[in-house]
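> example.struct
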């Protein structure tokens, strides 16, 4: 099952303007009926028998295909992870979106923005000032960091031994030295006088917000208006039907958006949302939540908001949800189950299997480790570190590339032989690097696994398309290469660039530059200027064919963040304005094709049809949590606006502090 076939039921008023289409449909229906009546009884019986026979065959083949088909289907697996299905709705009326306008990149067309008063530039100084933070103590007994008022961070004490350990890291015979890295690219934007000095940061005047950032603030406010008017306190906005959908029933969009509001300086909106968290957010609920999704969105969102605001409310809530998620780890192998009932304290795998998804069990570490550091309770970190250690030793990898599933009973990888950097494996790679950075670059096993995996990508998954020779990351299934790339893979250029910034080989930066170009082309070569969920690249030049081909089942866009996320890293580290310009184009196209006039933005079904992109009636929480946040940061020239030497973003764009070695 997939969500590709979600559609929206129209109310009669909404259907105004689509009259011609309905009439012709009705006419077709009548003429079919007439033809049916003209058939003899025998002919009708034969046709009915054939239909019945096909239906029975369909049911039998569906049940016999079973699990392997489900897990290995070529389609967007990310959608199947955990998200609920909404069956049987009709296609939405394109008329609910602003009438598509002719693109005029030079003028920077921006429907709806110009007539509105520009929002006031926010005055709040964003971001915490002092982030000299200690990692958890190795003796396992962590010092509680939290006090109910403000957190006093501890001074950095550089450890001499550690310095020697850090300067040379040997990986598979290769020596990675910090000076092999690309020049610290942050400096390409603006050299901070004292990059990590608390006083320097405090004394600095806030950098004024520029026009493009204002446009992001306007977009956020528009999205927030829809959420506030029609979905307040619920998980996701359905902007067309002016209603909401529930997934966990925990105000997902609101929590995901908290730190974005803080970063954008939206004080009023933030205060209002804070009130909801204080008065209405209750985790004592008989509800099954997905461990990964609730960790990255809820736990991650609360922790980062706590760090930015220093408001203990968010830490209290983080502790509460963290504790409630812990039953997931009670499995024979200690590889967590995918689902937890946060009210009952029980956990279980999905109904059809005892497997968990590899990306899910290996992309909850940043959050649980940070929770241990803040609370002084080692159990959170212990549980997630154990998963990483176990995965580190497992067989079934292919030059560092991992399969997509792992069994919660045996602890072994399952469905071996399929390797992707897309759905179900993606953030495994991202979190190897980011945990290494979070922990002060000391955990060498994480770095080894990351470096090995990137070599695996180069060896097995990298190819170049035709005619533009775009470098892309395909997939490998039982030795067969497929030129398929999920939009999700576009996190990779940003991650590679972050690694290079942190002292890894400059080759990674070169690869990042090539891949971000490809990700941009996944937007630029499409009719709406928006990327589909999945593309297939052409390996052979054919007249009239572009590099990017799109299958009908893959042409939706869910307002995903990965490309703008990578654009943000690339701009921070190179200072090359083209990355900002590409992001600006993408924002304009989101405004053109996904903005709903009454508030909110919607996923669309067809990026190839500018005159009817087929809105899906859903605004995913990551649009506010990630996409708009990364846009805002991309357009900023202030490297201290979430300084990447002090913070590491979790996979849902929630910044968590880097622990400064004691
Ligand atoms: C987000 O929930 C996270 O970025 C996750 O890692 C992947 N999928 C969505 C966004 O596309």
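> example.seq
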């Amino acid at each position: 099952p997939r969500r590709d076939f979600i559609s929206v039921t129209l109310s009669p008023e909404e259907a105004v303007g689509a009259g011609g289409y309905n009439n012709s449909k009705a006419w077709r229906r009548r003429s079919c009926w007439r033809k049916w009546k003209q058939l003899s009884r025998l002919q009708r019986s034969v046709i009915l028998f054939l239909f019945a026979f096909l239906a029975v065959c369909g049911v039998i083949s569906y049940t016999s295909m079973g699990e392997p088909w489900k897990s290995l289907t070529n389609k967007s697996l990310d959608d199947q992870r955990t998200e609920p299905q909404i069956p049987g709705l009709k296609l939405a009326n394109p008329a609910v979106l602003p009438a598509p306008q002719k693109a005029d990149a030079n003028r920077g067309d921006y429907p709806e923005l110009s007539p509105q008063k520009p929002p006031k530039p926010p005055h709040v100084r964003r971001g915490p000032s002092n982030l000299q933070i200690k990692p958890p103590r190795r003796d396992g007994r962590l010092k509680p960091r939290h006090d109910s008022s403000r957190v006093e961070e501890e001074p950095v004490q550089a450890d001499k031994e550690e310095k020697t350990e850090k300067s040379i890291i040997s990986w598979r015979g290769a020596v990675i030295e910090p000076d092999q890295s690309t020049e610290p690219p942050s400096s390409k934007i603006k050299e901070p006088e004292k990059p990590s000095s608390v006083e320097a940061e405090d004394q600095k005047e806030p950098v004024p917000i520029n026009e493009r950032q204002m446009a992001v603030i306007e977009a956020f406010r528009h999205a927030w208006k829809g959420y506030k008017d029609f979905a307040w306190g619920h998980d996701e906005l359905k902007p067309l039907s002016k209603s909401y959908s529930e997934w966990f029933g925990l105000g997902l969009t609101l929590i995901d958006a908290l730190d974005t509001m803080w970063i954008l300086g939206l004080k009023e909106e933030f205060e209002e949302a804070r009130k909801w968290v204080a008065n209405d957010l209750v985790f004592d609920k008989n509800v099954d939540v997905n461990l990964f999704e609730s960790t990255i969105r809820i736990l991650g969102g609360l922790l980062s908001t706590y760090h930015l605001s220093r408001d203990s409310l968010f830490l209290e809530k983080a502790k509460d949800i963290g504790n409630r998620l812990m039953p997931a780890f009670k499995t024979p192998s200690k590889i967590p189950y995918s689902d937890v009932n946060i009210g009952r304290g029980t956990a279980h795998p999905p109904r059809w299997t005892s497997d968990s998804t590899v990306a899910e069990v290996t992309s909850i570490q940043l959050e649980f480790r940070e929770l241990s550091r803040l609370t002084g309770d080692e159990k959170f970190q212990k549980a997630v570190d154990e998963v990483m250690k176990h995965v580190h030793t497992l067989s079934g990898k292919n030059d560092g590339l991992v399969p997509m599933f792992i069994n919660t009973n045996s602890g072994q990888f399952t469905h071996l032989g399929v390797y992707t950097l897309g759905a179900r494996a993606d953030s495994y790679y991202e979190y190897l690097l980011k945990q290494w950075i979070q922990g002060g670059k000391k955990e060498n096993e994480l770095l080894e696994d990351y470096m090995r995996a990137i070599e695996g990508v180069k060896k097995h998954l990298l190819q170049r398309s035709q005619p533009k020779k775009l470098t892309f990351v395909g997939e490998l299934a039982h030795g067969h290469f497929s030129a398929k790339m999920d939009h999700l893979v576009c996190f990779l250029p940003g991650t590679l660039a972050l690694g290079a910034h942190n002292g890894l080989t400059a080759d990674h930066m070169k690869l990042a530059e090539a891949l971000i170009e490809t990700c941009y082309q996944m937007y630029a070569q499409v009719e709406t200027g928006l990327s589909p969920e999945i593309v297939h690249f052409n390996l052979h030049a054919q007249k009239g064919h572009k590099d990017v081909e799109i299958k009908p089942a893959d042409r939706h866009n869910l307002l995903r963040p990965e490309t703008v996320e990578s654009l943000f890293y690339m701009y921070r580290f190179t200072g090359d304005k083209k990355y900002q310009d590409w992001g600006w184009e993408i924002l304009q196209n989101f405004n053109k094709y996904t903005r709903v006039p009454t508030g909110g933005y919607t996923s669309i079904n067809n990026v190839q049809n500018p005159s009817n992109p087929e809105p899906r009636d859903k605004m995913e929480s990551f649009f506010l949590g990630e996409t708009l946040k990364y846009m805002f940061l991309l357009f900023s020239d202030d490297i201290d606006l979430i300084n990447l030497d002090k913070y590491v973003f979790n996979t849902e764009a929630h910044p968590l502090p880097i622990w400064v070695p004691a």
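> remarks
Residues 78, 427, 488, 560-561, 622, 626, 651-652 surround 1-deoxymannojirimycin (CB under 6 Å).
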